[in-house]
């Protein structure tokens, strides 16, 4: 781009922005042009105000701003040297500005007012014709650019709406799932309490009722804890200690067996001898492994054996893989299952497996908190392997 000083070389600037005008036209126009300097952050003209001046930018940058319905300012574009704006002012005595132009840096402009331009145009109809044809071309190019920008914005909006709709669907699905998960244990508790109130339960049946109430209340507490964990992230500060990784895995396995009352499913444990002690928060890792093991039991309707391996991986990492031969996960969902509340079971579909879709989110967050990661390999019908990688510190 040419480096033109508005103050000393207005001719050059006029020639650069109106290349179709000849030397004599430029001479005439320059007689009507007044050089001006605008500091940074001022409005050269304002949307909605009337104006009678054409502005030609020699140097500096300015934003084109329009106001939305709520008066919020939207920067639609920016302009810099060797262009012009406010051209409608030359066509009519006074026009309403369609945008605000605000300087982003010091701007050197040439200003041509309608009043100063009129006598030149009256004496030189050819100049007027050539100038108009250039200005109309400029307006057309601007229109095309605006339409293109609008099309891009439209595509972005479309994308944003699609994302919102998907989130809304996820939210609705989550509320439906959560209500279901809360209602099931609450209904059982309510039923047993009703019978106890009527004095209908005695001896063994009273014991069965008490056990069921305790189990269901535990489920409710565990659900609430999951939600709390997810929303408050990590309320208590982590307590790092050095410990044996297999110990935590066995503790988590025990907890899941108790919770799910599953003593049938075989679990094949294989811990490499060389696994070093790990420095981490034991409870947080316990929660992560519990979530993964819970899924291995849950999404395994035929109670096929589960394999848990702990081994030394590359890059000074230890790895724990939890492998089931359950229902598996389609490839398209591998990235999504870690999102909060995401479940593959669809709303309205059969609710085959309990859960609110936060187990993997929690496991991923807790692993990431230890600078680790989780990888998934799975095929529908063949089962799933979730592998947790943790750095050895
Ligand atoms: P939840 O188990 O409460 O539904 P998660 O966040 O633990 O939530 O898992 C999200 C989804 O990922 C599950 O609903 C399920 O569709 C899928 N998933 C997770 N683990 C397994 C697994 N081992 N086998 C098959 N599907 C799984």
Intertermini distance: 56 Å
Specify the CATH homologous superfamily of the largest domain.
Answer: Histidine kinase-like ATPase, C-terminal domain
Helix content class: 40-55%
**Secondary structural class:** alpha+beta
Largest sheet: 5 strands, mixed
Give the topology string: H per helix, E per strand: HHEEEEEEEHEEEHHHEHEEHEEHEE
Domains, number: 3
Question: Helix count, per DSSP?
Answer: 9
Q: What is Rg?
A: 36 Å
Poorly predicted sequence stretches spanning 5 or more consecutive residues: none
Count the strands?
17
The CATH class of the largest domain, by name, is Alpha Beta
Corresponding CATH architecture of the largest domain? 2-Layer Sandwich
Examine the coordinates and then state which fold CATH places here, giving the name of the CATH topology of the largest domain.
Answer: Heat Shock Protein 90
Quaternary structure: single chain
Residue fraction in strands? 15-25%
Describe what you observe in this structure:
It is a single chain. With 393 residues, this protein is of the alpha+beta class. The protein has three domains: 2-117, Jelly Rolls, CATH 2.60.120.10; 140-232, Orthogonal Bundle (Helix Hairpins); 240-391, Heat Shock Protein 90 (2-Layer Sandwich). Helix content is 45%, strand content 24%. The chain is built from nine helices and 17 strands. It has a five-stranded mixed sheet with strand order 12-14-15-17-16. Helix 5 packs antiparallel against helix 6 and helix 8 runs antiparallel to helix 9. The longest helix is centred in the middle third of the chain and has 73 residues, at 125-197. Adenosine-5'-diphosphate binds next to helix 8 and helix 9.
């Amino acid at each position: 781009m040419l480096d033109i000083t508005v103050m000393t070389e207005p001719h050059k600037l006029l020639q650069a922005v109106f290349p179709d005008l000849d030397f004599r036209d430029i001479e005439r126009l320059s007689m009507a042009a007044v050089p001006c300097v605008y500091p940074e952050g001022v409005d050269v003209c304002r949307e909605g105000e009337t104006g009678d001046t054409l502005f030609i930018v020699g140097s500096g940058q300015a934003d084109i701003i329009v106001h939305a319905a709520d008066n919020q300012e939207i920067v639609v574009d920016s302009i810099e040297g060797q262009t012009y704006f406010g051209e409608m002012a030359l066509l009519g005595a006074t026009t309403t500005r369609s945008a605000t132009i605000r300087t982003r840096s010091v701007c050197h402009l040439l200003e041509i007012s309608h009043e100063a331009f009129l006598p030149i145009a009256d004496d030189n109809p050819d100049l007027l014709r050539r100038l108009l044809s250039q200005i109309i071309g400029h307006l057309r190019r601007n229109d095309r650019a605006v339409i293109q920008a609008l099309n891009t914005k439209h595509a972005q909006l479309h994308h944003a709406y699609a994302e919102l709709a998907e989130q809304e669907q996820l939210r609705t699905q989550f509320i439906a799932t959560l209500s279901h998960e809360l209602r099931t244990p609450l209904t059982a508790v309510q039923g047993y309490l009703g019978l106890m109130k009527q004095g209908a339960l005695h001896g063994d049946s009273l014991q069965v009722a008490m056990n069921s109430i305790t189990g269901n209340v535990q489920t409710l507490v565990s659900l609430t804890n999951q939600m709390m964990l997810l929303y408050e992230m990590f309320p208590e500060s982590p307590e790092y200690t050095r410990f044996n990784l297999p110990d935590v895995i066995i503790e988590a396995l025990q907890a899941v067996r108790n919770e799910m009352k599953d003593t049938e499913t075989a679990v094949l444990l294989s811990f490499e001898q060389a696994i070093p002690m790990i420095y981490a928060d034991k409870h947080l890792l316990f929660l992560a492994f519990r979530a993964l093991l819970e899924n291995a039991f849950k999404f395994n309707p035929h109670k096929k054996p589960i394999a848990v391996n702990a081994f030394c991986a590359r890059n000074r990492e230890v790895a724990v893989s939890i492998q089931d031969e359950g229902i598996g996960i389609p490839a398209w969902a591998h990235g999504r299952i870690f999102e909060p509340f995401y479940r593959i079971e669809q709303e309205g579909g059969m609710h085959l497996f309990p859960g609110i879709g936060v187990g993997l989110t929690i496991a991923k967050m807790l692993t990431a908190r230890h600078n680790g990661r989780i990888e998934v390999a799975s095929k529908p019908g063949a089962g799933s392997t979730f592998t947790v990688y943790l750095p050895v510190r």
